[in-house]
Amino acid sequence: MQSNAVKIHVSHLKKSFKELEVLEDVSLDVLEGEVVVIIGPSGSGKSTFLRCLNRLEESTGGEIVIDGISITDKSVDINKVRERVGMVFQHFNLFNNMNVLRNLMLAPVDLKKADKAQARERAMAMLERVGLSDKAESYPSQLSGGQKQRVAIARALCMKPDIMLFDEPTSALDPEMVGEVLEVMKELARDGMTMVVVTHEMGFAREVADRVLFMDGGTILEEATPEEIFSHPKNPRTQDFLNKVL
Amino acid sequence: MSRILSTYGGILVAAMGQTLLLALYGLLFACVIGMVVGIMSVLHNRACRAIAAIFVNLIRGVPMIVLAYFIFFGVPYFWNTILQIGGLTLTALQAGTICLALNCGAYMAEIIRAGIESVDVGQMEAARSLGLPYWRSMQRVVLPQAIKTMIPSIINQFIITLKDTSILSVIGFPELVNTAKNVVAATFLSFQTWAVVGLMYLIVILLLQRAAKVLERRLKYAK
Predict the structure, then answer these.
(1) How many angstroms separate the Cα of A103 from the Cα of each of A46, A96, A106, A149, A212?
(2) Is B128 an interface residue toward A (CB < 8 Å)?
(3) Of B23, B211, B37, which is closest to residue B108 (Cα–Cα)?
(4) Which of A62, A101, B20, B181 gives 20 to 30 Å between its CA and that of B104?
(5) ipTM of the assembly?
(6) Beta-bridge partners for A197
(7) What is the chain B residue with the closest CA to A157?
(8) 3-class DSSP state for residue B16?
(9) What is the domain-level CATH number for residue B22?
């Protein structure tokens, strides 16, 4: 870590869908270059929390500051912030009506981040990085799950984000394809990307995370380094959860 | 049969031309109405969704023949006699076009709404997460995928609308059915006349279906 600037600051975040309270009171600071992994049982609010960070879900209370910009302030142009916060989804969400190259070039060209030639060059470089240069002309329907997810990561990287959010990126993959996606993510982490990852891959959490958060019932119950949380979990619910999944 | 064809063939073909003209005008405006109302019904804004729902339910709940009478006779009466503003006259073509546009527009709106909703929400979310604004995401990502699933239903709706022009014979527009009625009145050859008219509709609609198939196939394979 070269510096310890706060990239994501969350204080007392609340989110409810009508009566149902999904996030009760979540506070978190993520530093530049840090990899934070969020684990927890399904329905614990971890995906909702992640989706609040780029306002795909509107929070109902508290504050989120991304790179000094309060995105919970309604007057902020959220599109500008999203340009610098990449997101990778469980179900890939590649644009089915475009080939891989156009998937990668759409946002940079449309948002005038680059002209066509520059965008193409960057797209090809990102495909190279995820090991899929030969798939530039393929359509999403012609790719395997693992390939789709690597393209999705490349697509996010084309916007030159400085934060990446991963929402259970390997949960929809066949087991033999999980490795290739985690490998790309590990490399990103090594290169100093600030990452928040919601996952069930405990191996990844142990190996790559700087910090692991255990969420349950809409709150962060425990927060520690991977060694601590996996070897000496303090909260009984963390212990219970880890006993089931490890 | 030969007497109908030789004496009235030209008139019936011309009337088919009027039918097609009316259908074309109606469909043109119906597409605009359908697009606007269809998109309104998927927006977050509650007022937009409510207006769209009211429009669609209202039109779907009223038989088109009633709508035709209402627009052609009712609306000018209301304007000129009840409100006493005066000066409103609608030609049968104008009233017929409005009627078709409203009727077909409501059904088109439903087709377009269903088409947009058939696209996985993840597509929109992915586009938004990259920083693309809502309308841009709609335009570049969601609508191109939605249109593919809409095409068969839209063509079906076109055909229904073409046939629905016959209902507008009741307001005196000289389309095919209205003209055929006059031919029958003059000749009493009802079997022959209606057989020819039926055949004419059939031919036009089969041609339309054929064109639609070609279009559909092209869209399917276009990458």
Answers:
(1) 27, 9, 6, 12, 32
(2) yes
(3) B37
(4) B181
(5) 0.93
(6) A37, A166
(7) B130
(8) helix
(9) 1.10.3720.10
Question: Which residue type, as a one-letter code, is found at position A199?
Answer: T
The continuous run of DSSP H or E covering B104 comes out as helix B92-118
Instruction: Verify whether the Cβ–Cβ distance A106 to B130 is below 8 Å.
Output: yes
- Token duo for residue A209: 């995370």
> Directed axis angle between helix B143-164 and helix B9-40, to 10°?
140
Question: In whole angstroms, how far apart are CA A203 and each of A149, A200, B109?
Answer: 19, 9, 50
Amino acid making up residue B39: I
Distance of CA A66 to the CA centre of its chain: 14
Q: Are A54 and A82 in contact (CB under 8 A)?
A: yes
Q: Is any Cβ of chain B less than 8 angstroms from the Cβ of A106?
A: yes
**Is the pLDDT reported for residue B223 higher than 70?**
no
Per-position DSSP letters for B133-189, written without gaps between them: -HHHHIIIIIHHHHHHHHHHHHHHHHHHHHHHGGGGGGGT--SHHHHHHHHHHHH--
Residue of A nearest to B122 (CA): A93
CB-neighbour burial class of residue A47 (10 A; exposed 0-12, middle 13-18, buried 19+): buried
* Structure confidence by residue, pLDDT tens digits, B142-169: 999 999 889 889 999 999 999 999 999 9
- Nearest-by-Cβ selection for A159 from B128, B130, B145: B130
Separation of alpha carbons A12 and A7, rounded Å: 17
B55-88, pLDDT tens digit by residue? 999 999 999 999 999 999 999 999 998 998 888 8
Residue of A nearest to B140 (CA): A106
Q: pTM for the full model?
A: 0.87
Chain-centroid distance of CA A229 in Å reads: 21
Q: In one letter, which amino acid is A245? A: V
Residue with tokens 């309308």: B135
Measured CA to CA, the distance from residue A111 to residue A30 in angstroms comes to 27
Residue holding tokens 């869908």?
Answer: A17
SS3 A90: coil
- With CB atoms and an 8 Å threshold, state whether A93 touches B128: no
Domain that holds residue B118: 2-221
Q: H or E stretch including A6?
A: strand A6-17
The CA angle A149-A64-A15, to the nearest 5 degrees, is: 80
Looking at the DSSP assignment, which residues form a beta bridge with residue A214? A39, A222
Rounded to whole angstroms, the Cα distance separating B16 from B196 reads: 12
- Confirm if A203 and A170 have CB atoms less than 8 A apart: no
The terminus-to-terminus CA distance of chain A in angstroms comes to 30
Token pair in block for residue A48 = 């909702």
- Maximum CA pair distance of chain B? 70
